[in-house]
Amino acid sequence: MKTHLVRTHRSAEEFPKEDHLAWKIAEVATDSVEVTDATSDMIVNRIIDNAAVAAASLVRRPVVNARAQAQSHPYTPGSTVFGISGTFSPEWAAWANGVAVRELDFHDTFLAAEYSHPGDNIPPILAVAQHAGRDGQDLIRGLATGYEIQIDLVRAICLHEHKIDHVAHLGPSAAAGIGTLLGLETETIYQAIGQALHLTTATRQSRKGEISSWKAYAPALAGKVAVEAVDRAMRGEGAPSPIWEGEDGVIAWLLGGPDKEYHVPLPGSGEAKRAILDSYTKEHSAEYQSQAPIDLARRMRSRVGDLDQIASIVLHTSHHTHVVIGTGSGDPQKFDPTASRETLDHSVMYIFAVALQDGTWHHEHSYAPERAQRPDTIELWNKISTREDPEWTRRYHSTDPDEKAFGARAEITLKSGEVIVDELAVADAHPLGARPFARDQYVAKFRTLAEGVIEPSEQDRFLDAAQRTPELKAGELDQLTFTVSEDVLARAPKVAKGLF
Questions:
Q1: Transmembrane segments in this chain: where (predicted)?
Q2: Backbone angles phi, psi at 276, to 5 degrees
Q3: N- to C-terminal Cα separation, the chain
Q4: Does pTM top 0.85 for this prediction?
Q5: 497 phi and psi angles, rounded to 5 deg
Q6: Rg of the chain's alpha carbons, rounded to an integer?
Q7: Which is nearest to 273 in space by CA: 148, 447, 170, 132?
Q8: What are the CA-CA distances from residue 231 to residues 13, 55, 96, 176 (Å)?
Q9: 384-388 vs 408-414, strand pairing mode
Q10: What is the rounded distance in angstroms from the CA atom of residue 213 to the CA atom of residue 60?
Q11: HEC string of the chain?
Q12: Which residues make Cβ contacts (< 8 Å) with residue 33, sequence separation at least 6?
């Protein structure tokens, strides 16, 4: 990997385009290096993973509304939308599928200086691949780039410190991935990246306080914007530049300011794009920093015994976990039993309480209003707090994969004064966890979430196509979706009509 120094430059300062971060990223996108077998296999896993969580969210209101918007934009050749037949304008297909994938917060993750769900790259890049009649190898190359760029930006540039939402790294990565997919020139991809970043910077209020359905829509919008940015760049339209380093650019005014320096690693010329191998998926439908605490709670419950005897629980964890999903956030909503699913998903106190009581986690039952409002759950929930531990923060930011951790140490104090202590560094499903996810686990996750939604024969067809992604010919990428019966679609709530 080659590390690039990125900082603000005054307008009067000599700063050639070839030195801009957006240009360096575009060069990575145009590097035709072969994708390794390991990367290709993991991309297939994540295509399956995305479809699994989309199946589970198919009749939830935000997904139904996004799908209805896409259905108002039919197009030929177009792109597919999860759950239904037909083809639709690629930017709207990317939008609808992006919401379906993101709604349950149940797909892959990469955490470093910033947070990310790099699987958000798949809907826009796949939509363009289908529309443009590309083959499986083109798709694999495009997705390898999308994952690489987003993960490399996440390694180096912290957004949340400045209250900027993490999708600001997704717009550029999706634009770069689409550029690779289509074999565009460096100049065109450079302009698309600049446009995509300029249009996807927004505040983190979407993940603060009373969290709404926009949490799922935000990355879908970034993917839609990336498709549109590439379209404009292909027509010869330009972007603000230098977008990161300009005197009035993103670094100067939205991030660390004119004096801040960032060190962004990118693959060198001829170096394989392997970043996807550093990311990890979720076994549980909850914010990634809750994955290890869920497994920890399940492990500790037998040692605790009678949960009514608990006086207090303190989760010693990283700064990120403490301030984003813990009591360090200062959000009273994280203790509100009537809060939205999106809010409960970002309360490690609620999640630890339910996992401790139930010994399991379910993407629907664990968030049901009647579950959140149980008096014994509310009582236990309010006994839980988080505390930042410098060692967990250090491990969170470690670049050593054997040391990097997203877990916690739980101290459960009983009314008798006895203290029960245990800790877990990574989730069981993590590559270094007790039960690492491999192809069989991805397929099992798909089967579980598709049960009662997708007919078994359609499950078989999709899984067969997904596992043959690298071999699919031009025009065959429409197989990387699924349809469901009208009876399943009829389970969706009635929604109001919009403009379309």
A1: none
A2: -55, -30
A3: 47
A4: yes
A5: -80, 140
A6: 22
A7: 148
A8: 31, 29, 19, 12
A9: unpaired
A10: 10
A11: CEEEEEECCCCCCCCCHHHCHHHHHHHHHHCCCCCCHHHHHHHHHHHHHHHHHHHHCCCCHHHHHHHHHHHCCEEEEEECCCECCCCECHHHHHHHHHHHHHCCCCCCECCCCCCCCHHHHHHHHHHHHHHHCCCHHHHHHHHHHHHHHHHHHHHHCCCHHHCECHHHHHHHHHHHHHHHHHCCCHHHHHHHHHHHHHHCCCEHHHHCCCCCCHHHHHHHHHHHHHHHHHHHHHCCCCCCCCCCCCCCCHHHHCCCCCCCEEEEEECCCCCCCCHHHHCECCCCCCCHHHHHHHHHHHHHHHHHCCHHHEEEEEEEECHHHHHHCCHHHCCHHHHCCCCCHHHHCCCHHHHHHHHHHHCCCCCCHHHCHHHHCCHHHHHHHCCEEEEECHHHHHHHHCCCCCCCCCCEEEEEEECCCCEEEEEECCCCCCCCCCCCCCHHHHHHHHHHHHCCCCCHHHHHHHHHHHHCHHHCCCCCHHHCCCECCHHHHCCCCCCCCCCC
A12: 267, 270, 271, 272, 273
Note whether 485 and 455 are within 8 A (CB): yes
Q: Count the Cβ atoms, other than its own, within 10 Å of residue 440.
A: 8
Considering the four listed CATH numbers 1.10.8.110, 1.10.4100.10, 1.10.730.10, 3.40.50.300, the one that applies to the domain covering 2-278 is 1.10.4100.10
Copy the structure tokens of residue 400: 């050593």
Could you give phi then psi for residue 313, rounded to 5 degrees? -135, 130
Distance CA(237)–CA(351), nearest Å, equals 47
Token pair, residue 144, equals 């390898």
- Domain 288-424, second-level architecture: 2-Layer Sandwich (3.30)
CA 432 to chain centre: 20
Q: Each residue of 237-277: pLDDT tens digit? A: 999 999 999 999 999 999 999 999 999 999 999 999 999 99
In tens, the pLDDT along 41-100 reads: 999 999 999 999 999 999 999 999 999 999 999 999 999 999 999 999 999 999 999 999
Q: What is the distance between the alpha carbons of residues 470 and 380, in angstroms, rounded to a whole number?
A: 49
Q: Are 129 and 182 in contact (CB under 8 A)?
A: no
> Could you tell me the residue ranges of all domains in the chain?
2-278, 288-424
Q: Report d(CA 452, CA 434) in Å as an integer.
A: 29
- The residue type of 186 is T
> Comparing C-alpha atoms, which of 126, 125, 119 is closest to residue 150?
119
450-473: pLDDT as tens digits: 999 999 999 999 999 999 999 999
Distance of alpha carbon 22 from the chain centroid: 22
Residue 305 token pair: 């015994």
Q: Within 10 A of 338 (CB to CB), how many other CB atoms are there? A: 9
Please state whether beta strands 74-79 and 88-88 pair in parallel, antiparallel, or not at all (unpaired). antiparallel
What number of residues does the chain have? Answer: 500
Side chain identity, residue 317: T
CB 155 within 8 A of CB 265: yes
